[in-house]
Design goal:
- Four copies of one chain form a homotetramer.
- Chain A is α/β, with parallel strands linked by helices.
- The first copy, chain A, has a domain of 153 residues: Class I glutamine amidotransferase (GATase) domain (Rossmann fold).
- Chain A is built from seven helices and nine strands; from the N terminus they run βαααβαβαβαβββββα.
- In chain A, strands 2-1-3-4-9-8-7-5-6 form a nine-stranded mixed sheet.
- In chain A, α5 crosses α6.
- The mean pLDDT of chain A is 95.
- At the A-D interface, loops of A face loops of D.
Chain lengths: 239, 239, 239, 239
């Protein structure tokens, strides 16, 4: 099997300014994730908002098998041209993993076609992510019925997204809410996984089970079965 | 619009023996539900396990638009022949509303094709049923984001059912669990709604909002668009 | 039941210039459809591209229960601001029926999140639309297993759309292709139906069964169960 | 990666009696399929109706990763006890590939919960299986938009099965019908693929592309991500 090329993108703004975030992710969330993902068959690199073309050149994207996206306060600063470029790559088969507050990113909203709105409360409370699709590659090797995080931001339903293909995790929050926290979609030939946890001031990505989920998700989202599609007369081509 | 003929079935065993259940449902859960469902365009009648053919004669079923099923301890006493008969009627377009512990009924397991297993704990705890499909006819007129029941039995994931068409409610339980509590399916031309709450020793069906959900569900499950299907050479016919 | 307010939109360009189209639809496709839809409980009006705000003012849309969209060669001339406005109304519960070449309209692409590409051939060939969801309100009262159109443009798979909620019709074409010709989606609280036939130089909308399908679709897409959604802290509101 | 243990089951009746079938599949359809599937990481064995326990002992099934099922005229001769046994293994994660006339097998009907009825015509006509889920592992490496079979039995819609998770192939038949010919489901932790072609008197399984589809399907259906599920108080356990 060929290696998987993973590109981890984040805004990389708060990690440079906010001491609390800096303390958890000194090199940024993108670098932190890229580091723990690295293993035998996974190559990782990073990109961020303030790089040229947000670090997402055509060349770079063409070589990317799976893109991981973490965004929070600067969604509007991502250029529409780059969003269009990422969108085309997803439809052509690049995997996309969307994390936490990136539910409001331009690319996720464009792929979903809905508002992607939700309820939230920043209160570092207990979250339990119940496995609701046992047997799915994304929960391979996860033991127990749920993943427990002692401190997380709450996201609550209604989450305005299309009916997912699979609901991998459903969260329970201490304060009384529930949330579809791990959901999959296929758009064109691209596989998409939205994963809820990952508030910048909680140590969520330090959690070994969360890391395991993301490693599994990378392998799942890497589409090695891409077909050439012929649209005949049509002006647009997917591939 | 024609009236809707609803038949409400329950075992009607515990309501005759157990004082706690008798106190809540003196004439049985079937009669209690049949009473509150009655309105302008809804005709209701009841049936129970100990009647001839469990009260589900061919003639009776042929006239039933929506069948409501509550069962608990006597699933195995329901005859396979009657289950087969109900199954055929569902595929031909009769609506089916499956309540609470009827997740383990023969008819629900036959329609789902899975074990329908789940976790449970009888502890009269707080349940919140969050609306996860706003805009669906089953939650028409329900105000607020959730329905709250002070005392219910807990059912927890993993609930071994096929991916639902729609998840209308997702429950949060005080003790830390979540559950897909209101789920819809179409099998053949029949519309199916499974609704979780309704433990026999809690006053759940006395709750006005729960009653509203069941009224809505009856209207939704009543299929007024049944087509005649031609299977040509095939030995089995749906209609 | 309240009346349903249907707004039928088309570019209304070809019907003014092209003699073949003018002959079939002298007042435009929008007016032709609006006329046959009118009945007891359906009010209809029309709008087209060259009107102010494309005939889709905020006031007009606010009163519209179901919008029907036929577009072909001028998709790019529809302003992004109006598309945004229609999109918000769909998420808030307005029904949307997308016809034929409007698969490439901005609004459909925005709601789907995919390229919506397909194969096509303009050859006035035989099409059979097989019913693949009997018992669905959109095929209520349609007798027989399929609808046959003697002359239509061919659209062929692969059709790059998300997995539909229901596939109501699957087409067979004389030339050897198949197509998912009647597909439903829910986005936010809005119900969406894409219906393939309707080439401007074929008399498709003169066909009584096609007219029946569109009447059924209007009733289905009219969402009378809209809930008020509370997104708490979130900046965007659906309703 | 561990090897995949595939067990290919067929009635093995017609291949012993009917000269036409014997000519195509001298050792039976099960042996023929088992032979072409064999490769580096796939171990195959066969079983048939007239063996003890239909060749499906508990021990044998426990070691089977993917079961392939071809049945036609003797569905009723398969014992309910063995069907129950296979069903439990599927829910626990064994893959199941159901071929052609096995749409009417007890095991498929039990897993679907519907009649699985369809239209058919035995006329050795042209079939084109259009790819309607490009990018899916089951069509990996299949070039072109469709697979063409010169002579096959026709199966036509309506096919009474639950809404599939994915529709991999949609067939076009010379005589005017369409059919959802390659469909996937997940039940419990088991992955299921129904594949339409394979009439016993047509050389379908001799076709190299059909063989490729079945090899792909075996790899897809082999679930290497099985979780241990805890149902707490529940009497039934999936795993």
């Amino acid at each position: 099997m060929d290696n998987i090329n993973v590109l981890v993108w984040s805004e990389y703004r708060q990690a440079r300014k906010d001491p609390e975030v800096k303390n958890l992710y000194p090199e940024g969330i993108n670098s932190y994730i890229a580091n723990f993902l690295k293993e035998n068959q996974i190559n990782t690199s990073t990109a961020h908002l303030d790089q040229k073309e947000h670090g997402l050149s055509k060349k770079k994207l063409a070589k990317t098998d799976v893109l991981i996206w973490w965004g929070h306060r600067a969604h509007e600063e991502v250029s529409d041209e780059i969003v269009e470029r990422v969108h085309k790559r997803v439809l052509s088969g690049m995997g996309l993993i969307v994390l936490h507050s990136a539910h409001y990113s331009k690319i996720f909203k464009k792929l979903m076609g809905t508002s992607c709105s939700l309820k939230w409360r920043e209160d570092s409370e207990l979250e339990r992510l119940w496995i609701t699709s046992p047997g799915h590659p994304i929960v391979k090797g996860i033991t127990g019925d749920y993943i427990e995080l002692q401190e997380e931001e709450m996201y609550g339903e209604y989450f305005d997204v299309p009916n997912p293909d699979q609901i991998i995790f459903t969260s329970w929050f201490e304060g009384g809410e529930v949330f579809r926290s791990g959901i999959t979609y296929k758009r064109g030939q691209g596989k998409i996984f939205y994963f809820r946890p990952g508030h910048e001031s909680n140590p969520t990505y330090h959690n070994k089970t969360v890391q395991k989920v993301l490693k599994n998700a990378v392998k799942w989202a890497n589409n090695t079965s891409i077909n050439s599609i012929n649209f005949g007369n049509s002006p647009e081509m997917l591939n």
